[in-house]
Write a structure and sequence with these properties.
This protein is mainly alpha-helical. It contains eleven helices and three strands; from the N terminus they run αβααβαβααααααα. It has two domains: 90 residues, no CATH class; 86 residues, no CATH class. Helix 4 links the parallel strand 2 and strand 3.
Amino acid sequence: MKEFGARYFKNTIYINFDNNEVMKKVFEIDFDISRIISAIKIEYGKSFDSEETLIIFDEIQEAPKALASLKYFNENAPQYAIIAAGSLLGVALHKGTSFPVGKVDFMHLYPLNFYEFICALGENQLAQLLLANDYELMNAYATRYAELLKKYYYIGGMAEAVQTYIDTEDFYEVREIQKTCLSITKKILENMHLKKLFQGL
């Protein structure tokens, strides 16, 4: 998202609701878009032009009112470009929160497949060979494919884990990213389980 902002916008404003209690509170007050924009400008540290700015709301599942505010941005301030990212599993925990149906375009992101993985590692020629289905030539490079496949089995397709390996080539660092992802998923699932238990009382 940040890369997209850097390429196509003059300004990119990144707000992560996982670690920004102030912005969470801003959205809890009301859906006055002009007031919310004023708060975003304070957070950004300077004024900005709506046509040249991308606003990123990350971990939006942590701020249900921010998710609901997208409807009001769409209706009252459509000149602002906003990307909201977060776990739909997390969003599911907040039943009863207004969801801006019809006001949000979804893009579902999935882990990298093996082809995308080897492209990310810069092995573009080997990737193209996969697409060409030239099995005889692929067989000549079987050892390299096997090595890449072993890495893929270990690293997986989660973008952050892949990027960590590209940046560090450190499997220990990759494992730490994987543990963090598993820990977050476990907490979300535990919360969902507890909520179902309470609903059953």
